[in-house]
Amino acid sequence: MDYLENRELSWLKFNKRVLEEVTDESVPLLERLSFSAIYQSNLDEFFRVRVGTLTDADDNNDTKDKRENKTGMTPKEQLDAVFTAVRRLQPLAEESYIKTMELLKPYGYEQVTISSASEEEKLFLELYFKREIKPLVSPIVIDKSHPFPFLSNNALYILVQIKDKDKKGITIGIIPVKNEHFPRMIPLGNDGKRFILAEDVILNFAHLVFKNYKVIDKVIVRVTRNADIDPDDDDGDFRESMEELVSKRQKLKPVRLELSDNFSGDALEYFCKKLKIENRNVFYSRIPLDLSYLFELSDLSDDSSLKYQRREPQKSASLSESRSIISQIRSKDVLLSYPYESIGTFIKLLNEASVDESVTSIKITLYRLARNSKIIEALCTASELGKEVIVLVELRARFDEENNIKWSRVLQDSGCRVIYGPKDYKVHSKLLLITRKTKKGTEYITQVGTGNYNEKTSRLYTDLALITSNPEIASDAEKVFSKLMKKEFVENTSKLLVAPLCLQNRILDMMDEQIKLGKDGYIGAKINSLSDRMIIDKLVEASQAGVKIDLVVRGICCIIAGVAGYTENITVRSIVGRFLEHSRIYIFGKNDENRKIYISSADYMTRNTTNRVEVACPVLDRKLKDRVSDMFNILLSDNVKARIQQSDGIYTRAVRNPDEPALNAQEYFYELAYKKTEEKKERQERLKQNKSRISAKNK
To answer: Scanning 321, 392, 415, 499, which has its CA 20 to 30 A from the CA of 424?
Structure first.
């Protein structure tokens, strides 16, 4: 259908929007390099997860002919389309990186190659290789008497075709690049800004490693492996099963082979055969195969013109620093907006609860945590002080399994009760419930968020966190935890929407309410991804009924807006900028008393709405509803970082009229946070002065 887009191809369009930041002249140069690295990192994960999943499906006789429900493509057809799209993006990735490095030369930055190095530098590099690198690398010769080695995921290797005069046939040698004893970026001056990569040096002097052979051809390679693996269905220790899974993942089937240049045809065919990888999975790149080192370059410069303006999350202007957070939450709901406001407020709440004698229990769901988590510290303190602390740690959070396994042990050792989610259903919700016994009875503090309890990402991702003492919300939260402890699902709630059983259906019901209103109806959503076919069909139905629909979708969007007869009343925007747009907002109804607004951990994806435990929370306080509504409208008004989806599925930058001021939503929200902080300081100063005057008058 003309109004539907394939999920994988839609994701690649999103990554193209990331790549476009590398060519955006308004983005500082070193930040542009970071976007090159982000683009590549995104693509690496895409191959590991999505291409890995499609490859498994294509290899399985039971699923190879199964067609996806948007465009009817088989796994093989999707893989072919994905590989074609990736190859079309590669020239832009190369050209944008090369151009940015060229623009950085006047600032002393330069990635040197052997051919661009001076004669003096070449002599230095040869000596450096012989003394610092060659003694530490372990070359491998592959022939009939030497088995093919295991090549680690995304690691760099030098692949060399060599010839032994006494042997016939193809012989190849492999040199691992990674070694903790020599740097990846070898400095050549300007405090490290002028550098050469270790793999280029090893490639150039590979003949010195294989002295008894004639080097015929050589190239840098990198293998990406499948990460699509699930825990075994057994009744053993789940944490031990996850540890085994993490170990197994590193050895899964390769799904991509990258080369830095052309390589001898027969030797490449031999190498691919050993890897058990097809030619369609082979890709070439004129730029470094691993751009992760680019993040380090920013630390080498103090020039503020090369980086984003420094920003610091602000303390919530709606809370007093001199009063207990718990006491303030008892009297009003609070909404935190990251990264504009600090996660420190939430951590302070946890710390208060951990030592508050009236607190009897703390229950929380954890998905992704920082490496040095203050949240873990607060939970451990609470447990050690005798409080009941129940923590659901999601060990299946992809690529965070090891970190979560570690934290689950720390929590357990401190006396916390650690639980895991229902079989086959990840717990992706961001939910906290604090229970207090007071003279007035039992009281609750509930926090529901859109993002992880992670101090690092709270500075990089936009997220919302609602903290409330509402008893009905607390009752629903208690029900969620009660069910999780029994590995069951919530079937009905009063206020919260809880997947997998009572989120999607409630969303569809609220959309039906808007459909009945026709042109007087309104649906808005800010999400990371949209692929749930039932929700898509309902949005199409709403559009056909005349309902105005505004969607802000950062990544995957399987609906195409503006298609006559289907989606002409739908607009789709994507904002890609300095911070990763991660918050989820659902809006049903126009600006009146009946408008419903939710914040949620769930995207409009089937994996979220029916295959995970997710929580969406209504924003009930009038001022906070207005605040979220205003935030959504600012996002719709962004004319700097927003891209608008056209009826052909292509995204174009928002057009700004000559007399229209530039509006970058993310910068707007930071300026607003700073402004509120200043206003708060002014109010406190006026209050202090008034108290002084009253005190002086009384004397």
So the answer is: 415
Q: What is the 3-state secondary structure (H, E, C) of 17-71?
A: HHHHHHHCCCCCHHHHHHHHHHHHHHHHHHHHHHHHHHHHHHHCCCCCCCCCCCC
Query: Mind listing the pLDDT tens digit for each residue in 470-496?
Result: 999 999 999 999 999 999 999 999 999
Q: Which tens digit of pLDDT belongs to each residue from 59-104?
A: 999 999 999 999 999 999 999 999 999 999 999 999 999 999 999 9
Tokens at 441, concatenated: 């009875």
Q: Is 508 helix (H, G, I), strand (E, B) or coil?
A: helix
Note the maximum CA span of the chain: 106
Residue 428 designated active-site: yes
- Under DSSP, the state recorded for 105 is G
pLDDT tens digit string along 98-137? 999 999 999 999 999 999 999 999 999 999 999 999 999 9
Going from the C-alpha of 357 to that of each of 151, 387, 441, the distances in angstroms are 55, 9, 14
Q: What Å distances lie between residue 688 and 42, 299, 474, CA to CA?
A: 51, 42, 37
pLDDT in tens, 281-330: 999 999 999 999 999 988 898 899 999 999 999 999 999 988 999 999 99
DSSP code, position 129: I
Band (pLDDT 50/70/90 cuts) for residue 248 is confident
3 state DSSP class of 239: helix
**pLDDT above 70 coverage of the chain, percent:** 98
Q: How far apart are CA 324 and CA 326, in angstroms?
A: 5
Catalytic residue among 146, 181, 207, 428: 428
C-alpha–C-alpha distance, residues 451 and 338, integer Å: 9
How many CB atoms are located within 10 Å of the residue 577 CB? 19
Per-residue tokens: 272:
């691919």
Residue 84 has a CB neighbour count (10 Å cut-off) of 13
Question: Which strands sit side by side in the sheet containing 140-142, from one edge to the other?
Answer: 140-142, 171-176, 156-163, 214-225, 254-259, 282-284
Secondary element (H or E) of residue 413: helix 401-413
Tell me if 295 sits within 8 A of 204, measured CB to CB. Answer: no
Name the CA dihedral angle for 653, 654, 657, 662, rounded to a multiple of 10 degrees: -100
Token look-up 């002249």 returns 25
- What is the average pLDDT across 242-253? 78
- Token code pair at residue 553: 């979708």
Give which of 314, 285, 142 is closest to 221, Cα–Cα.
285
pLDDT of res. 165 = 67
CB contact at 8 A, 22 and 94: no
d(CA 177, CA 155): 8
Query: Per residue in 191-211, pLDDT tens?
Result: 899 999 999 999 999 999 998
> For 439-557, where are the E strands, in sequence order?
441-449, 461-468, 497-499, 522-527, 548-553
CB contact set of 423 (below 8 Å; sequence gap of 6+): 233, 487
DSSP state of 314: B
For 108, left (φ over 0), alpha (ψ -120 to 50), or beta?
left
Residue tagged 């447990």 (tokens): 383
User: E strand or H helix at 392, and its extent?
Assistant: strand 388-393
Q: Is the pLDDT of residue 233 over 60?
A: no
Q: Which of 346, 345, 349, 358 is nearest to 385 (CA)?
A: 358
Global pTM exceeds 0.90: yes
C-alpha–C-alpha distance, residues 314 and 459, integer Å: 11
pLDDT band at 238 (very low <50, low <70, confident <90, very high): confident
At 364 the three-state DSSP class reads: strand
pLDDT at residue 683 greater than cutoff 60: yes
